[in-house]
Structure formats: structure tokens, C-alpha cells
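Case study.
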Amino acid sequence: MVGQVPVGGDAPITVQSMTVTKTADHEATLQQIYALAAAGADIVRCTCNEPEAAEGLARIVPRSPVPIVADIHHQYRRALDALEAGVHCLRLNPGNIRNPQHIRLVAREAKDRGVPIRIGVNGGSLHPDLYAKYGGRVTPEAMVESALQEIEFFDEVDFDLIKISVKASSVPLMIDAYRQLADVTDHPLHLGVTEAGPPPVGTLKATAGMATLLAEGIGDTIRYSLTADPVEEARAGRQLLEIMGLRERRNVDLIACPSCGRAEIDVVGVAHDAMEAFAEREIPLQIAVMGCVVNGPGEARDADLGIAAGNKRGHLFVRGQNVAVVPEDEMVDTLVEWAEYIQENGPEAALVRASSTKDAARKAAEEDRQRNLGERGDDANNSEAVIAGIRRASEGG
Ligand code: SF4
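After joint prediction, the assembly is written out as follows.
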């Protein structure tokens, strides 16, 4: 348990993030913690790097909406201060708190208070002896050994409220390290690609590493380490778990076609507007934005609600059935209105609501479908004409 949040075993996988404010500035830090919690963070970490930070934690912990982890590097005394401040968990880096006496002292104190500790191994700050042992390189074996050494110190004082992370900025390296770690320990694992960098590449890196492991059943709690507003980290973490079916959907799952020569609207623009319109609404439905009525409703038939463009109008469908026709510039507003209706009353009620308009809507969609097919034919991207052009050019050359 990290505060009231279970981590490990059958507990839902949790999302973590870290504040970037000075912890001593408890008001600013609390504001950020609230923003992170609203974006999907279940647990938030704050640095405890100076006595003033520990004092900040003493004020933050009782007012925080989520459990607080104190991040400790180099100074074991800050760990003791953070425990005194009432934090729900500590993160220790075995690479830079190396004195066994200090480690045992912190573990004993944490044990007395029932506070868990994350052993946070980081590929960038391994113990120098481990670097040397593994040929001056960071290897998965060195990272796992670092974690196991720390567990031994904890064992000596009979402390086992442990989570472990073996983060690296290299995705293949962290994947290997976590796989090896999962083979040798049953302790809950905290996943992350450290120093992943700014989005979108940083988000991709972190997703590649964490999703690979989660799909193998490895990992109990995750953190995106992005060079960005931490709210983006929390949001990304939450979204990853929802996408992988590991947490219940809280927000819209927007699906949109990639567009093609048949598209009758600016699909990218409309999908973007829809994304924005739903961003602050907690509507856990799958909603589709499709560029044309030729394939759209069929391809998105499993969506709860969708809209497909045709002849300057939007064809609204619920579970693949046409229910209404709206002007193009009302497409997004209509989606929002119907999404709210479905959320409140369910899709069956939405179909009943549309009983007087369904037939006309189906007919209009079919007309626009035929019109699009007639205008653009089966080869909407004109590939035959393009190929003929290429052939002519190459024969000419
Ligand atoms: S056929 Fe229609 S729905 Fe499919 S990608 Fe093209 S525009 Fe989008």
C-alpha cells in the first residue's frame, strides 16, 4: 500500500508522476499535485532534497488528494526527515546512498512506520563498483544486481515493503533489465524509461518500453519521464493503461480514419476539434470521426457513436446505424450532444430517440454514398491514372 493505493498483486496498475515545483513551496506543489491527480495520477512523487523540502512535505501530505512519495538522493537524512513529515512512500537510489548503515537505518525507520520504499535503480547513476564489475558499462545484469544488493540490506532488518524500478534511457536496456528482474523477484515493479525527453519522441520511447513489459504481465505502476509539463506525464500514463485495457476507460476513445482521396471534409481538423471538445469531458465512449460515408459507418460500426462526412453534411450513426443528418459545421457540436445523451441514457435509448429520423438519415447517407462512389469511383486516389503517368514518363526517359 502506498497510502490508500494498493500496488502489486491483483491491484489495478497505477499511474505516477512527479512535481517540478520546489517542494518547499508547498502551495505551488499542492496545486501541481491536484492538477496531476485530475489528469490521472494515482500517486505523486516530490523531491526531498533539503530540510525545507521536508518541511514542505509535512504541509503537503495532509492536504494531498493522492499519496506522496519522497524522492531521495545522496542524503539519507532527508529520507528520515520525509518519514517524519508523514510521506506514504520513499524512493531511494541505491547508486548514491551507499553506506549500509544508513540504508539499514532508513529501512528500520520505514518499517516501524509501515511505509514502503521503492528501490529506484537508475542506469545513469549505478554504484561505481557495479560499473567496474560489468566492464564499465551499464548492463541489465548490473542494474538487477544493484536492486538485489539493496534488498539484502533491507532483509537484514526484516523490511519487505518494497517496490523496485530499474530504469534506463535506452528502451532495449530497460526492457531486458525488467525482464531479468521479474524472473528473480515477486516484489511489485515500477516501470519507466528514464530521461525519455520531450514529446512526441519521449512519449514514444516510454510507451515502447512500458507497453512491451505490460503486455508481458510485467509492471505494477508506471511513470512517463517526459521533458514536459508533468500533467502530460500523468495523462499519457492514464491513456496508456486505458488503451491497453488495463484500466477502465474514463475519457473518450476517439477513433478517426486516416483520410484518403475519398474524404469529404478536413478529417484531421475535425478530429482535432472533436478531441478538444471532449478533452475536459469524462465520457467513456468510443467515438468515430470518418472522412466519408462510403466506408465510414461500416468501418466504425463498433463505435458507440460516430459521424461520417458526405456532400457537405455529417451523417451521424449510433452503433453503426444512421440516426441523423447535420450540416458540416455542426458535426462536432452534434457529436458532443449525442455523446452526453448516450452517456446519460445508453445507446439503446439513443436509437429510440432517433426512431423518427432514422429512415430519412439512412436514405440520405445512401444517396451521399452513391454520389461519392459515382464521382470518385472505386479508385478514389486516382492510382490508375498516376500509374499510367509513371509508365509514360519512364517510357519517355
Ligand atoms: S474511405 Fe472514407 S472513411 Fe475510409 S479513409 Fe477514406 S475518407 Fe476515411
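Observations recorded in class. Residues 31 and 203 are 24 Å apart (CA to CA). DSSP finds 15 helices and 13 strands in the chain. We will return to this complex in the next lecture.
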